[in-house]
Design a protein that fits this description.
single chain; about 110 residues; about 0% strand; mainly alpha
Length: about 110
């Protein structure tokens, strides 16, 4: 049966948001030298200050969608939050008021 076949995943691993240091390193690796260090730091602090619940894949998607101008994407105050709202059809309240055990509902 499929459930007993080698290579099946039988463990759940929670992967939450990155802390500031990891997020900073992650963004640096994605944008390389194409954006100034100050823009990366500002973006990381803005994500942290916004209290938005996100995944690393969403950060990567936002940056890839804005790869023509990383500096501009990183400097937009609410750019990432607006990206999440537009991509996922969530309200801002959904993004900022979730408890650990709550699930996000699409609207």
């Amino acid at each position: 049966p499929a459930m007993l076949r080698p290579g099946r995943i039988d463990m759940k691993l929670h992967m939450g948001p990155l802390n500031n240091n990891l997020l900073n390193e992650f963004v640096k690796r994605l944008v390389g030298d194409l954006a100034p260090e100050s823009a990366i730091s500002e973006f990381v602090q803005g994500v942290e200050d916004s209290k938005v619940i996100y995944t690393p894949a969403q950060i990567q998607g936002y940056l890839l969608d804005n790869r023509e101008d990383f500096g501009k994407a990183l400097s937009q105050k609410d750019g990432f939050k607006n990206y999440l709202v537009n991509q996922n059809k969530f309200t801002v309240d959904h993004l900022t008021s979730l408890e650990d055990d709550d699930s996000i509902e699409e609207i």
